What we know:
NADH Oxidase; 4-stranded antiparallel sheet; 43% helix; 13% strand; globular
Amino acid sequence: MDTVQAIKERRSINFFDPSRELSENAIRELLGLANLAPSSFDLQPWRVVVVTDPERKKTLRACAMNQQKVEEAPAVLIIIADPAGVEENMDRVLESWQALGYMRPEMRGAYADMIKSLYGGRDSLTRKLFAAKNASLFAMTIMIAAKGMGLESHPMDGIDEACVKKEFNIPDDKIIPMLIAVGTLKPGGSLLPRAFRRELDEFVSFQTYRK
């Protein structure tokens, strides 16, 4: 599907077909595409827990305001923003940059210092925002890629984060911006017209901010 068409046609689907499974290969293809999402300094501070088992989805539903689509969708992705992604991935990023010619060897230390300075300590608000912003870019790419693959999706931030962390063994220092249900529309389901969107002039200004 054309990218512009995918953006125009992507909708947040509430009713999934529980009889249509999503293969592991399809899920891996989807996440492989999403892994091409942009990230600050290529640090990719995201992780994903893929939930497909019916009993595990039932547990997740209890952590997600009892939303029916958590059980109906063949796969639900727990999107995790990882503040520790800086330390875990920085050396490999810099090695790649050096090998590919993006960076001269003598600049490696300067880039490492820049990264540490920009994103602060692991427990800082700056670091948490960095992780959440990048994981959200990854999440949006999942949804556009899903539409391109002929799938539907629905992002959910109506969750009890502490419950999700406890039930799915996610460390306390991670952040869960959202869940994403992925699958196909239930047979006979139909969508209402797209709801309200602001006119561009209400929120777009050029050169400087205006109310």
